[in-house]
């Protein structure tokens, strides 16, 4: 067993360990809208559920040289965002949204997605996604490394669920994971598909 003090590792070394060990991580494609009504799309694998009562999702947006990224800036500005689950059918197009584009250059100019109006918020969602969460900002926390802001942690309250008939069973209320075919993020350029399923019962 190798042992390392966090203080003895560089930021790059720690990041490589974290993204290699904590995975596969679910991926959110987040749509936000700027004050100039430019639609921004960006994928995030620092993403998960925080609570179901109320329904809260977390998205951590890493900063660049202390500067806030478009997703965080837009969401803080208007308090809204649409979160989509990335799956095998859309992951290639989602990857195209991860490029470094200017704030006035929407990722819709680079990825083949169609937007549609949301049910409860002003920000539009992506028509091709099988799962959409319309959200409002619940809380915002800035993560610091010393005095330098390095990330914006967004807690997003789910206002509306849009679920494809392909993956949702109205009778049971469950999502069919094998039909959704969500993908997970690993280290580097690697992704993971859903593999073999197994069940373990909790202790009584």
List the topology elements:
Elements: H1 11-21, E1 25-26, E2 28-33, E3 39-44, E4 47-52, E5 55-62, H2 70-78, E6 80-85, H3 91-96, E7 115-116, E8 125-126, E9 131-145, E10 148-163, H4 177-180, E11 183-185, E12 191-193
Antiparallel strand pairs: 1-11, 2-3, 2-6, 4-5, 5-10, 6-9, 7-8, 9-10, 11-12
Structural commentary:
With about 200 residues, the protein is an alpha+beta fold. It has one domain: Pnp Oxidase, Chain A. It is built from four helices and twelve strands, in the order αβββββαβαββββαββ. It has helices at about 10-20, 70-80, 90-95, 175-180; strands spanning about 25, 30-35, 40-45, 45-50, 55-60, 80-85, 115, 125, 130-145, 150-165, 185, 190-195. The strands form three sheets. Strands 3-2-6-9-10-5-4 form a seven-stranded antiparallel β-sheet, with helices on one face. β4 (about 45-50) and β5 (about 55-60) form a beta hairpin. The longest helix has 11 residues, at about 10-20. It is globular and about 50 Å long. The model has no long low-confidence stretch (mean pLDDT about 95).
């Amino acid at each position: 067993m190798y042992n390392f003090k966090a203080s003895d590792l560089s930021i790059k070394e720690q990041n490589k360990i974290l993204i290699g060990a904590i995975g596969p991580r679910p991926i959110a494609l987040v749509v936000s809208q700027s004050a100039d009504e430019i639609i921004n799309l960006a994928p995030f694998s620092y993403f998960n559920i925080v609570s179901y009562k109320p329904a809260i999702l977390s998205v951590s947006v890493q900063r660049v040289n202390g500067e806030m990224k478009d997703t965080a800036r837009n969401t803080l500005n208007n308090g809204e965002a649409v979160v989509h689950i990335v799956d095998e059918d859309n992951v290639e197009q989602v990857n195209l949204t991860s490029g470094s584009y200017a704030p006035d250059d929407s990722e819709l100019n680079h990825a083949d997605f169609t937007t549609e109006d949301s049910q409860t918020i002003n920000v539009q969602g992506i028509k091709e996604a099988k799962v959409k969460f319309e959200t409002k900002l619940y809380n915002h926390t800035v993560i610091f490394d010393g005095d330098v802001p390095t990330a914006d942690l967004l807690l997003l309250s789910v206002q509306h669920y849009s679920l494809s008939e392909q993956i949702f069973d109205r009778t049971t209320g469950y999502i069919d994971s094998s039909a959704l075919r969500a993908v997970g993020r690993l280290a580097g350029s690697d992704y993971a598909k859903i593999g073999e399923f197994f069940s373990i019962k909790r202790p009584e």
